[in-house]
Amino acid sequence: MKTVxxxxxxxxxxxxxxxxxxxxxxxxxxxxxxxxxxxxxTAYDYSMAKIVDGAGIDVILVGxxxxxxxxxHETTLPITLDQMIYHASSxxxxxNRALVVVDLPFGSYQSDPxxxxxxxxxxxxxxxxxxxxxxxxxEIKESIKRILHAxxxxxxxxxLTPQSIYKxxxxxxxxxxxxxxxxxxxxxxxxxxxxxxxxxxxxxPAKLAKEVAESVSxxxxxxGAGNGVxxxxxxxxxxxxxxxxxxxxxxxxxxxxYDEMTGAISQYVDDVKSKDFPNDDEQY
Length: 284
Prior knowledge:
Its main location: cytoplasm. The chain is of the alpha/beta class.
């Protein structure tokens, strides 16, 4: 009996350490089945995506957070479909391994399932992306079904949905009350039944997120949703400490690039002003 248990444990370990040459939707399902956590980060341009992909990330999200990070808008609402396609195309050209998921921006899918399908098709055809992500549950079910029927993989997004910021009025934790928590669980099950391959849960209580992850067979990827889910996603610029004014509880900064970059640029300015740069070895 002990031999059998040991054999099973070794088999599970070997699966968890499986090397994926290319991450696919199926890869993520396999990871959940074998209790291997999924890593996910945003990227919006070629240079950063190349670094992120080379570091071994599983999923790259070309998020509508580009509206904030890259364009300086207060919300994600202003970014357009054309701009999302531009960012996604830049990322795709850099990626060899990761699954690339692209956000459908605000206004490109909410009003009409046919419009949602047209938007998703444009992203897939014009950028070469691998999947799209939509915010919402029951209210966008028909849009999700229309996109899935066209053969386009869909990732869901529940909890805090930034495209609905003016509806909520705040970026605080969602689903703390029982009614909203129950709706979130039902929406997660609905998205699974509809055919979504994964769901992002943003800024909800960790206990609820764990309950959702255990109630569905598709991967649940959290941001501010605790460690009881199947994977984690962060905005790359937050992780690297470039957006130094942003301090949510869920964020772990792995670098402080804001200070390092500021110091390096200031030193360059000083070197140019003092005629130290370029020196004899730095010219032809």
